[in-house]
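Continuing the series of single-chain predictions for the mutant panel. This is the parent chain; the variants come on the following pages.
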Amino acid sequence: MAVSRAHATHRSLSHLLLAGFNPLASTASSSFQGQARQSLSNPSLAPVPLSGWLAAVGREADVVDPLARPYSVRPGGIAGGAGHSLVTYRSWEGMDRIMALGRNEAGQLGVGFASQEGTRGLVEGFEGEEILSVRAGVQSTYVLVRDEGAFQPWPLASSRSRFLKDRTILYSSGNLARGRLGQPALYSPSSTAEDAESSRQHTLPRATVVELPAGEGRLKQIEAGFEHLLVLTENGQVFGTGCNTDGQLGLGSASSDIYQLTRLPLPREVEKEGGVERISAGADTSAIITKSGKVWTFGNSEYCQAMHGQKIDQIVSPLPIDSSFLPSNRRIIDYRCGGSFALALDDRGSVYSAGYGALGLGKDTLQLQKPQRIDSLEGAGIDRIRAAWGYAAAVREDSSALFTWGLNTVHGRLGLGALPHSSSSGPPNPHAPPAVPMHVYEPQEVKLPLRELGLDGTVGGRESVRWKLGEVELGMEGMWVGLDVSEELD
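Parent structure:
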């Protein structure tokens, strides 16, 4: 939970929720004075004691002000990778930081070292005024920050407003192999044979600046697949680095690896459609979405997840999807690839799926070549979609609701709760994860812990409280959800 004390008549709070594997369960159970023991498994969404977590890793200064008054930090961006997660937050003194936790065998946490066991700590090595975005892939972490840049004396400055020129800086950490970190000076094809003899040379355990293309301006968006990275500049150009064996960088050929950010040649039609509005990357598949709502996909589509109506092993250049499944006068506003399946969202709140796996269309429909609408979500007012690691989520912002489906884990990452214990199976084992539905074939609404947070309307004197869903992030081992609360004070 976090509290903003900027206005005396208004209070803003943020809660961080987690379903699935709790990476700090053992630490939490022994380090938080007066707090309940944290379970290893969260089959239902449960509040994360972020302030307690930070205190447990030596960051008491971020959660206690100089007058020794507790201050609950406000969580911000979230990233879920292959066994590791990132949570950004702002300390009481206004400093943006990143807590990283989970697997760290390649230094992907960016905490300054690699370790064979899971760990946690603060990401080291980055500087800037504000964290804009964090992303995580397979053994990789990416951090995008805003920096005010250097002071420009008049008349070199373009305006009289303090003469400061904002810029963006991109950092990466983790496994240098395959070029996924965009660090050619540290790991390049010429050094591959030598580096194969020592795994240490593959790791970059500290956030390190990625060289950006000159003259392209600020970065607008970053997205990570399994082993590749895409970035979108504010002037509409797309660059990529990393694994390209399926054409997921869209460079016109399926070369093995690209070691630095390289421009993706955009088809002329993209410019006619208003240019690139946003990008998407998931597993070994990528997409660009134009301002007119057209989707171009590239990379792996062996399960038809690129939405071209047929299986294509390698799509080496952006190819427009067959949008005949869309009703007239509608356009796509988002596309997400979750591995062997993908989702698309149109501007009327309809969700479509294609590929294999978490299609949300029932247990009798597990594979589709052409996208099909998920009828069970019709009328639900969906505003956002998420897909990753074999499962999916849909979010309604008005009268907030969260729906999940797909492949669960033994720790319950779908957040749909545990199955009732069967007496025929004997007494429950307190050391075993709770039984959960392993396959959920249609979207199910996730129960939010409103009563536990005092937001269910049963607490007197809190009639002015309003809440809404914040960021939703699907990691391999767990689902992270932000819950933003505002309350008018007397």
